[in-house]
Design brief:
The protein is of the alpha+beta class. The chain has three helices and seven strands, in the order βββαββββαα. A four-stranded antiparallel β-sheet has the order 4-5-6-7. Strands 1-2-3 form a three-stranded antiparallel β-sheet, covered by helices on one side. α2 runs antiparallel to α3. The radius of gyration is 16 Å and the shape is globular. The N and C termini lie far apart (33 Å).
């Protein structure tokens, strides 16, 4: 079971980052429970609901697809990050692997979990929508200037994926 809870979003106007209390548990194992920067890795996190992702916490901000999903509350992925590789397995599941990344480009796998991709997408979609609603009234100028357009596009893609999944489920359970 995949459970991502993000609460108490706050905006640090000086750093231009969105921080939040993040709680992530998979199969009953608590992996993250702390205040973290949310927006640096949010585009990559949302993308992971749609396709496989490989993090590089030392990548530039323009390489948003490679950002760790959750980083230190200061917003700097090089400071401290929770990096996950996500591989979509093609059978309605995705494998989330927690990685410890090194500056030399190597990473060490710590733990892997297989989760229902639809369950992840549903929670990621809700998070993306909440983030967009939260930032809509802010004078928000993130370090990666395309954060909001990228998040909007990914939210739309997640909605489409969910709509397709619901239609397929409906078709499977409808008698001919």
């Amino acid at each position: 079971m995949f459970e991502l809870k993000v609460g108490r979003m706050s905006f640090d106007k000086g750093l231009q980052i969105i921080q939040a209390d993040v709680r992530l548990s998979i199969d009953g194992e608590l992996l993250i429970e702390e205040p973290l920067c949310l927006d640096v890795g949010l585009p990559a996190l949302l993308l992971s609901g749609l396709e496989s992702t490989e993090p590089n916490r030392f990548a530039s901000a323009r390489e948003w697809k490679r950002m760790p999903f959750f980083v230190c509350g200061c917003g700097d992925p090089e400071c401290r990050a929770h990096s996950f590789r996500v591989n979509h397995l093609g059978n309605g599941t995705a494998e989330w692997t927690l990685l410890e990344e090194s500056q030399d480009g190597t990473s060490r796998e710590q733990e892997s979990f297989v989760v229902a991709a639809a369950q992840c997408r549903e929670q990621l979609l809700e998070l993306g929508e909440r983030f967009l609603a939260y930032t809509s009234e802010l004078d928000y100028r993130p370090y990666f200037p395309d954060t909001l357009p990228v998040v909007r596009e990914l939210v739309e893609r997640l909605k489409s994926a969910e709509d397709c999944r619901k239609m397929e489920a409906w078709a499977e359970h409808t008698p001919e």
